[in-house]
Amino acid sequence: MSLTSAHGAPHSDTTAIQSATIQTRDWLIAAAAAIVALIALYAVFMDNGSLISATGDYLHEFAHDGRHLFGAPCH
Amino acid sequence: MLPLLGRGLVAGGLGGLAAGLFSLLLAEPLMDKAIRAEEARSHEHEPAGGAVQHHEELFSRSTQHAGLVIALVVAGLAIGVLFAVAYALVHRRDPRGNPWPRALAFCAAAFCAVSLFPALRYPAAPPGVGDAGTVGDRQQMWLGAVVIGVLGMFLVWQVYVRLAPRAVPVRQGAAALTAALVLVLLWALPDNPDPVPVSATLLWDFRMLSLASHVLLWAVFAAVFGGLGLRAVRAQAPVAAGEADGKPEPADYGSVAPVR
What we know:
Chain A is mainly alpha-helical. Chain A has helices at residues 4-7, 13-46, 58-62, 64-70.
């Protein structure tokens, strides 16, 4: 069982601390990835020119067909 | 956690790609037709030079065709990340369950939460439908439908878990009833205010294709996510079994009948 140290009796305090640190690190990476994912979803499905809007709705128009197809509101 | 994120990214990317290519082949001809019909309509209403155009054409139609596939792949990757995080949170107390039925059940719930329920309340509309003036309101309604869908599916799961001591028909019946109530709750949201000035046939075909691409996305997602999960279990199993009694054994998961 490769994950025994994370759940069952640890071999020593050091391994327990190490596995807890690795778990915390992994959850932080996951949280950061989730934030990036939410920004990406906003850019694809919700943006109406507030992210890149030099002269127009670049993101909106580029993802235009995808928005319609996915059922996201569009104009 | 990180292997789950990787599986979510691969499954989401492939699911988005499948949905994107499917709709590039089948839905784009319909969208091009809808845009031509829209242009014809706006010419009828403004014969004197068309001061009020639909929108500035920043990109050609062929660029927007490519944009469809890219948008769905990006959305698939992002959905894969969020899916993996939710999957890890829900299964954090028992991360070793059979990954195949778990992936199928989780994808079915996610399909209802973010695809089917919002699509039943606010069905997809082809290009040419949708007033730029109401887009902010419609986005809030759509987001509300997605949030109600996700929280609702979480509630369904809680009902199912908390009724664990009861008989299976009671659990499943209560979970189904909860899902139905969540669906009804979506009608507490305001109606889509926009008129739909396109032919009923085009509208129906477009909505069916939209739903079909959602189904395809989640089907591919479930197969890839579950399949990669099974592969990871198989890769670990001989090591674990070998540690236990020195004799490698085949993995428990992934085979319906004993392999002989």
